[in-house]
Amino acid sequence: MAARGRRTRPKLLLLVLGATLLGCLAFFSYGSSGLESAASRRDAPGERERGAELLKKAVYDKPPLDLNAQGEMGRAVKLNLDQEEKRKEEESVRRHQINIYASDKVSLHRRLPERWNPLCRELKYDYKSLPTTSVVIAFYNEAWSTLLRTVHSVLETSPDILLKEVVLVDDYSDRDHLKEPLENYIAGLRKVRLIRATKREGLVRARLLGASITTGDVLTFLDCHCECHEGWLEPLLHRIKEEPTAVVCPVIDVIDWNTFQYLGNSGEPQIGGFDWRLVFTWHPIPEYEQKRRRSSTDVIRSPTMAGGLFAVRKDYFHYLGTYDTGMEIWQCGGSLEIHPCSHVGHVFPKKAPYSRSKALANSVRAAEVWMDEYKEIYYHRNPHARLEAFGDVSERKKLRERLGCKNFRWYLDNIYPDIHVPHDRPGMFGMLKNRGKTNYCFDYNPVDEHVLVGQRVILYPCHGMGQNQFFEYSVYGEICYNTREPAGCVVGDNISNYLTVQLCRKRGQSVPLDQKFVFREDGTLYHVQSQKCVQAVDMTDNGTPAPSLQPCSASLHQKWYFEERV
Fold first, then answer.
1. Are strands 499-503 and 488-492 parallel, antiparallel or unpaired?
2. Rounded to whole angstroms, how far apart are CA atoms 430 and 464?
3. Cα separation of 434 and 440, whole Å?
4. Closest C-alpha to 534, from 491, 470, 471
5. What DSSP line would sit under 340-403, residue for residue?
6. Using an 8 Å Cβ cutoff, are 141 and 173 in contact?
7. Does pTM surpass 0.70?
C-alpha cells in the first residue's frame, strides 16, 4: 500500500479557521444535545442563526450557478451528436456501463434540486456536539468525471467542522488518468487523501483498507459515482450521536446512467430486504413501521441494506467485526436504519462493468454464519451454491457467539416478519417434473425482473439450477414460486385453462380458491376451483409447452413429482 499526501492552501485555511472561531464564539452557550432546543433558539436568535450558518459552512463553496449548463439542477443532459461524437458516446457506455460522454459535459460542481421532505429543512443541529466523520470512497478504473464529481459533492455539501477527511482508495486501477493526473488534482484539495492497494482487493477489502487510516469518529462509506444532496450528512451523524449502535443509510436517489438526470423523490423511501436467493430487494415501508414512527422525519428501520452507502461509528464497526450483513447488525444488538432527511444520488450502471466473482461466496458465507437451519432454504433454491468455496468462517462464528447474537428465527419474527418463509417439506419442493413429458419442468421466468406476477407458467427442459424452476407445494395447498420476494403462487385460469403466477396471500389470510391445489397420492394436481387436473400440453396457443387445466384422467401427462437437485 502506498500513501499519497496532500497540500493545503494557507490563506483558505486561515479563512476557514477564522470562520470556525466566529462560529464557536456565537455558539458558546449551546447545550450538549444534537438538536438545538427550543429554549436556546429563543435566546439571541439572530446571533445563533449566524453562528449556525458559519458552523454548517461546507469545506468548499460551489461556484456560481449557471442555469444554462448541461445537467445543472439535476436536469437531463441533452446532446445533438454527429456520427463521430455518437461513436465516442457508445464507446464510453461500453467501457463503463455509464454514459461518461454525457457525464463529461456536466460540471463537477453541479447543484441538485431539493428532493427531501420539506420538514427536513426545519431540523436544527448543535454542530459542535455532533461526531466527526471520515468518508471512504473505493474505486476501480472509475471515469474521471464521475469520481471527481463524487469528491467535490462531498466537499461542497459537508460542514467543514464535521468532515475530517475524504479517503479515496484505488483498488489497483490500471487507467492512466487515475495515476499521476489524479494525484496532482487532489493535491490541491483540502481534506482529501489517496491510498492505493498493491493488488486487486475487491470492494469490501478496499473499503476496509481505507477505513484503517481514518481519523473521524464515524465511518461513512460512499460509492464512487454519487452526488450528495444538501444537508445529507447532519442527519446521519445526529442519529449516530443519539444511538451509537445504529448503522444509518441515506435515501438512495437514482441518477440516470444515460442522461444524468437526478430522479430524487421527496416521498417516503423504501426499505431493504432480500429473497431466498439472498438477492437484495426494495419494499414499501410496512404499516407497523409507519405506526412506530412519530414523525415523517424519524428514521425508518430496515431489515437489510443495499451495502454501498451507510454511516457507522468506527468503534462499533470494529466491535461488529467490520464488514458483514444487515442480518448481523440486528442479530447482534444494533439497528439498521434509513434516514429520510439524508439523500444521496447514485448512478446505477446499465449493468455491472466488472466481474463480481466473489458475490456467490459472500452469500454462502452469510448463510453459513447467520442463518442457522434456514440456510437450507437458501441452498434449496441455489443448489450450485453448495459447491462454492467460501473460505474459513470459524472466526465469524466465534464472533457471533462472543457477542451473544440472537438466532435467525428471532430476526425473521421481529425484524423481517413480512418475508414468506417456505416449509420445504421432503418431496414437496424442487423441480416439478412431469412423468408423461419426460425431463420437462414447471418454469417461470418473468419478462421484467422487477414485476413478478402476471406471466404464464411454461414447461421447459429441466436444468437443475433452481431459480426459475424451483417450486414448493405448501402445507396450505399452494404451488409457490418463492425463490423471489414477494412470493408468487400459481393460479388456475378457468377461461384460458393455463396457469399464471400472482402474489401469494398475506400471513393470516385464507388461500384463494384459484390458488388452491390438492397434490394427490397418484401424482395428480387437482385444482379446487375448476375441479380439473394439471396436464402437460405439448403445444399451446403460443407454441410453447405448458401446464394446462384439463378434465382429470389417468394420463401420465397428469402425473407430477418433485425432484430436489442436491
1. antiparallel
2. 9
3. 6
4. 491
5. EEEEEEEE--SS-SS--TTHHHHHHHHHHHH-GGGHHHHHHH-GGGGG------HHHHHHHHHH
6. yes
7. yes
- Which residues of the chain are modeled with pLDDT < 70? 1-49, 323-325, 355-357, 566
The answer for residues whose C-beta is within 8 angstroms of residue 500's C-beta and 6 or more apart is: 453, 454, 455, 456, 457, 490, 491, 493
How many whole angstroms from its chain centre is CA 135? 18
How many Å apart are CA 282 and CA 449, to the nearest integer?
13
String of b and e for 220-230 (b: at least 16 CB within 10 Å)?
bbbbbbbbbbb
Joined together, the cell numbers standing for residue 195 give 491510498
Q: Give CA–CA dist 70/78, Å, rounded.
A: 7
Q: What does DSSP say about strands 192-196 and 246-255: parallel, antiparallel, or unpaired? A: unpaired
Q: What is the pLDDT of residue 396?
A: 94
> Could you report how far apart the first and last alpha carbons of the chain are, in Å?
43
Q: How far apart are CA 277 and CA 385, in angstroms?
A: 10
Dump pLDDT digits (tens) for 428-454: 999 999 999 999 999 999 888 778 899
Strands 280-283 and 458-461, by their bridges, are unpaired
Contact 211, 136 (CB under 8 A): yes
Query: DSSP state, 286?
Result: P
pLDDT digits (tens, 9 = 90+) for 116-161: 999 999 999 999 999 999 999 999 999 999 999 999 999 999 999 9
Establish how many alpha carbons lie within 13 A of residue 252's alpha carbon, considering only the half-sphere containing its beta carbon.
22
DSSP state of 404: T
Closest by CA to 302, choosing from 324, 270, 331, is: 270
Q: Which residue has the cell 482487493?
A: 201
Q: pLDDT value at position 308?
A: 84
Cis peptide before 131 (omega within 30 of 0): no
Nearest to 310 by CA among 221, 423, 246: 221
